[in-house]
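Morning run. Coffee first, then this:
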Amino acid sequence: MPGYRLKIVDGNCLGATQHRLDELRVLSSGALPGKSLVVYDPALQMATQAICCEDGHAQERALFDQVLSLVEANEVWLADRNFCTRGFLGGIEARSAYFIIRHHQNLPWEEASVLIEQGRIDTGVVYEQRIRVWDEDGGSHLWRRIVLKLDQPTREGETQIVILTNLPKRSASAQKIARLYRQRWTIERAFQELAEHLNAEINTLGYPPAALFAFCLALVAYNLLAVVKAALRCIHGVEKIEKELSGYYLANTYRGMMIAIAPEQWGLFRQWSIPQLVERLLHLAGKVDLRCFKKHPRGPKKQPPKRRTEKAKPHVSTARLIAQRKTTKQAS
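And here it is:
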């Protein structure tokens, strides 16, 4: 969005850990070491801020004041319905910033205009109306309510998505707001990459400060990879990198580099300016053989065969079953 900076914020609850601490050994319940709110910049494809909380049961809304302290003028904050409170939306607007946030059914509003069809996007028909929301101090806010009626229901069976925004219509049409909200899934993909490729959630770290520290280290590593991907996009093209580059293979290249390149060789880069480093990154990106980092997407899932239960055989020999399969195949 020209003239604005888009930010995406979402919560991430760290997975349950092993019961290594004395307080956990006697419990069978899952032990949650903490949670975080991460701010993601889709233009940079990097995590720019993280707010950590050691209480795994804490509500995300208890951290909203810390999020609001990060908001700056002319930013557009995008989030899911958990962030849809009068205090949070009004706090963003009070800082001369804007929001695109999915409506939560517990947020009361009054109709200020009728719902009018605005056109289609690729996933459904878009409607818009003006609504009035009263804050806790009795102040009135006139915002836009965007309704996307979906062609296909979501996995949860929802047939429409309702979005609230205070962006002026001259800056973003209803269709553009609906398309921008789909950007929220970029942070979900980032969380997936953090967990699968960068081992951000180490289940042996039951102590909350240690678990959160490891998660933040993974965020730093994620941002380093974002810089590498940016250099590759400049040389090989955005579409090729986005569709074909494997984040897993790229993340695991580090191990080989640490073996092939002596630690003292890395010290050279500390003396370089940013333009020098960028020039070197682009030079190296041009020498990368992308075939070594190509994704291998799995095909469509096969329907699992129906299992038969044989009470007389609680166990089977895998080797015998394989041998039987080979014999049958040779005979046919």
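Residues 1-101+163-263+273-293 form a domain with the Nucleotidyltransferase; domain 5 fold (CATH 3.30.420.10). Good start to the day.
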